[in-house]
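Design job #97: recover the sequence.
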C-alpha cells in the first residue's frame, strides 16, 4: 500500500509541476469534446499474477471532455468491459493444478484529469497533436462468475448432465464468506472504487474530429475481482460435493484435491486490477471563436 501511495504522490506532483510551469504559455482556448472508445480490457490478479495478455476481452465506452486550455482537460465517462481468465492459461505448475477460472462484466463511472505534454488545439495546424498523461478516480461494478469444470462434475456427480450454468461466486461464498458459522471472512462488495492512471496520444485529423490511443490501468481496492484472495476453507463449511465446493476447489480435475483448510488459495497481500486499451474518436465544440489556423 505504501508503494501504491508513493506512485500516486509522484504522479500528482508531476501534474502539478508540468501544469504550472507551462501555464504562462497557455492560450485561453476552451472547448468541449464528445467521444467514444473501443478496444480491449485485461485483468491482473491472482489468476494472472504475471500480467499475461492471453485473455484480452472487448471493452468500450463513451465520454465527455472539457478543455480549459491547450494543456489541461477534465473528462467524465462510462466504460464497459468483460474480464476473464483461467489458471489453465498459466505455465506455473501450481496454478495449473489449482484450476480456478472466472469471468466478470465491468461497468464503470470515471472522472479524470488529462494533461497534454504539448500545446493541443483541435483545428490548429501548429498544435495538432500531443502525448498526454491522465489520472482520476472511478467507481465500478463487477460480479465474478464461473462454471463447474466438466471433469469435476463427472467426479462429484457422475450421473448428472454437464452443468453449463454460470454461477455468481460471491453469492456462493467460495472462501466461507456466506457461512454464518465461519466468521473469519465477510462477503465482499460488488461496487468498488479505483484509481485510473494512463497515458495516451491525441491527433487532430480533420475539421473538428480528433483521433487517439490510450492505455489506462485501474488500481482497485479489492482482491476479489476474480473471487480469489485468501485461503481454502474446510469443504464441510461449503458443503461436501456441493456446487460451492466444486467451484472453490476444482483441482480434483487435475489430480488429488489441494484444497486443504488453511492452505493458500490466492495472494491476499496484493489487490487486483484491470487495464483498458483502445482507440478513441472525439468531436469538438468550441466556446467562442474557433482557433486560428
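Job complete. Output follows.
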Amino acid at each position: 500500500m505504501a508503494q501504491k501511495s508513493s506512485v500516486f504522490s509522484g504522479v500528482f506532483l508531476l501534474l502539478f509541476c508540468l501544469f504550472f510551469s507551462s501555464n504562462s504559455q497557455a492560450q485561453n482556448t476552451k472547448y468541449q469534446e464528445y467521444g467514444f472508445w473501443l478496444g480491449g480490457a485485461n485483468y491482473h490478479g491472482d489468476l494472472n499474477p504475471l500480467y499475461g495478455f492471453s485473455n484480452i476481452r472487448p471493452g468500450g465506452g463513451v465520454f465527455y471532455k472539457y478543455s480549459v486550455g491547450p494543456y489541461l482537460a477534465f473528462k467524465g465517462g462510462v466504460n464497459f468491459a468483460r474480464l476473464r481468465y483461467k489458471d489453465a492459461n498459466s505455465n506455473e505448475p501450481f496454478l495449473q493444478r489449482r484450476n480456478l477460472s472466472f469471468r466478470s462484466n465491468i461497468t464503470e463511472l470515471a472522472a479524470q484529469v488529462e494533461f497534454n505534454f504539448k500545446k493541443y488545439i483541435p483545428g490548429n495546424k501548429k498544435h495538432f497533436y500531443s502525448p498526454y498523461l491522465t489520472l482520476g478516480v472511478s467507481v465500478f461494478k463487477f460480479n465474478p462468475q464461473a462454471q463447474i469444470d466438466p471433469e469435476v462434475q463427472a467426479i462429484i456427480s457422475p450421473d448428472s448432465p454437464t452443468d453449463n450454468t454460470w454461477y455468481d461466486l460471491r453469492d456462493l461464498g467460495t472462501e466461507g464468506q456466506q457461512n454464518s458459522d465461519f466468521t473469519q471472512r465477510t462477503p465482499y462488495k460488488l461496487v468498488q472504487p479505483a484509481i485510473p492512471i494512463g497515458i495516451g496520444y491525441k491527433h487532430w485529423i480533420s475539421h473538428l474530429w480528433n483521433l487517439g490511443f490510450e492505455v489506462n490501468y485501474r488500481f482497485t481496492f479489492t482482491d476479489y475481482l476474480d473471487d480469489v484472495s485468501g485461503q481454502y476453507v474446510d469443504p464441510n463449511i461449503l458443503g461436501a460435493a456441493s456446487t460451492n465446493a466444486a467451484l472453490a476447489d476444482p483441482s480434483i480435475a487435475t489430480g488429488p484435491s489441494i484444497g486443504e483448510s488453511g492452505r493458500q488459495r490466492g495472494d491476499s497481500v496484493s489487490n487486483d486490477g484491470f487495464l483498458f486499451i483502445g482507440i478513441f474518436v472525439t468531436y469538438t465544440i468550441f466556446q467562442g471563436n474557433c482557433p486560428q489556423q
